[in-house]
Amino acid sequence: MINKKVNNVREALLGVTNNMTFMLGGFGLCGIPENAISELVRLEIKNLTCISNNAGIDNFGLGLLLQNKQINKMISSYVGENDEFERQMLSGELEVELTPQGTLAEKCRAAQAGFPAFYTPAGYGTEVAKGKETREFDGKMHVLEPAFKADFAFVKAWKGDVAGNLIFKGTARNFNPLMCGAATITVVEVEELVPLGVLDPNQIHTPGIFVQRIFQGEKFEKRIEQRTVRKRS
Amino acid sequence: MLDKNGIAKRIAKEVKNGYYVNLGIGIPTLVANFVRDDIEVEFQSENGVLGMGPFPYEGEEDADIINAGKQTITTMPGASFFDSATSFSMIRGKHVHLTILGAMEVSENGDIANWKIPGKMVKGMGGAMGLVASADNIIVAMMHTNKRGESKLLKRCSLPLTGVGCVTKVVTNLAVLEIKNNQFYLLERAPGVSVEVIQNATEGTLIIEGEIPEMNL
């Protein structure tokens, strides 16, 4: 076993500096690395490029880094529901690269898997394909998309062990397993860090080889963005 | 003329036994309410769940279980969770049989525009570009005209495209139309709506062959 455990979020984020590119897991506020984001806010590092499907909301998630003006560029598929984001984007303070969701996922997976690029039909014939190489396969046009490159990946899992093996819960899985091993250093925060041998090897979603640092998050607020319920009849 | 629920009800008839279906945000979400309960269907949400169920009862919401609209949901027996790349493998690999989504414009050659209005805040395409680029069976649910009364079924889309030559069917408040040979074929009229009304609300080439039946809802 190779021990990946670090004691806290401060140790976990050692080495992050200005001008870096980060990957952050999550879909909306579901499965976001809340503890890493709080630490990034505290560290006040700036000029960051963030790869994340969404950009949080005004007072939570990546919205906290935006309010602090720490982010220079966002690479996302959907960025609604965030007034400060909109203000910075329209004023030109923030650069935004919109990428189709499935392409964003695959650009992470390609980085993880060692593929430099891949062809996808998504975005062909739209402004997303502008300036990109295209090619026909089986009579259908495809766009060449390069893998992402990032310095750190910040991932949130449900359970993990000190070897870095991970299990995700529900739709909080989303981009998280794809970002593991897709950056130079992968930092995982878990709700529950269990002793070695507790997790069944048959049930592991992400093997520890893709993880460099793991810690148990101090606090998970797990905010709900759209609370939808039905009445009991 | 149909309301949003009427459009959803008509589209639900396109959902067949054994289908895996992806529903977009808005009218498409309502389709789940009208699917016959004697057929086996599973709903996929591209954020990573297959076998979506109804909204949870009050107090049973789980922040870790949401749909692509970021709404809290439940799962049905037999459901599964997966990562975002697996989700789009289902879509890109054509394992999802039917995609239903909304649109701002559709053109007679099957182009769709639904993600960006120049000059307005751009929120992003989310999963839409992946969905429309891959699915063979794409039904658009939308109003026939926009708020200014202008047709949304056009010769050429004026807004930035989401995908090209991909839409197979359009269900609006006025009609059901099929797209083939770079034309709109009128299949059905909404209750009480005349062919003339549909013709006047359609800017793209509209083919009317024989008697056009009224929808059977």
| Average pLDDT taken over every residue of chain A | 97
**Assembly context of the chains:** heterodimer
State the helicity of chain A in percent bands: 10-25%
Order of helices and strands of chain B: HEHEEEHEEEHEEEEEHE
- In whole angstroms, the N-to-C terminal distance of chain A is 52 Å
Tell me the total number of β-strands of chain B: 13
Rounded average pLDDT of chain B: 96
Number of helices of chain A: 6
* Shape annotation of chain A: globular
Class by SSE composition of chain A: alpha/beta
Shape of chain B: globular
Give a quick set of tags describing it.
heterodimer; A: 8-stranded mixed sheet; 11 strands; globular; B: 217 residues; alpha/beta; 10-stranded mixed sheet; 3-stranded mixed sheet; 5 helices
Word description of this protein:
The complex is a heterodimer of chains A (233) and B (217). With 233 residues, chain A is of the alpha/beta class. Chain A has helices at 9-12, 34-43, 63-67, 83-91, 101-113, 176-179; strands at residues 21-24, 48-51, 71-76, 95-98, 117-120, 134-137, 140-146, 152-161, 166-167, 185-194, 213-216. In chain A, strands 1, 2, 3, 4, 8, 9, 10 and 11 form an 8-stranded mixed β-sheet that branches. The longest helix of chain A has 13 residues, at 101-113. The relative contact order of chain A is 0.19. Chain B has helices spanning 4-12, 27-31, 84-92, 128-134, 195-200; strands at residues 20-23, 42-45, 49-52, 75-81, 98-101, 105-107, 112-113, 138-141, 153-154, 169-171, 175-180, 183-189, 206-207. In chain B, the strands form 2 sheets. A 10-stranded mixed β-sheet of chain B has the order 4-3-2-1-5-8-10-11-12-13. A 3-stranded mixed β-sheet of chain B has the order 7-6-9, with no helix packed on it. In chain B, strand 2 (42-45) and strand 3 (49-52) form a beta hairpin. Chain B is globular, with a radius of gyration of 17 Å. The mean pLDDT of chain B is 96. Chains A and B meet through helix 4, helix 5 and helix 6 of A and helix 3 and helix 4 of B.
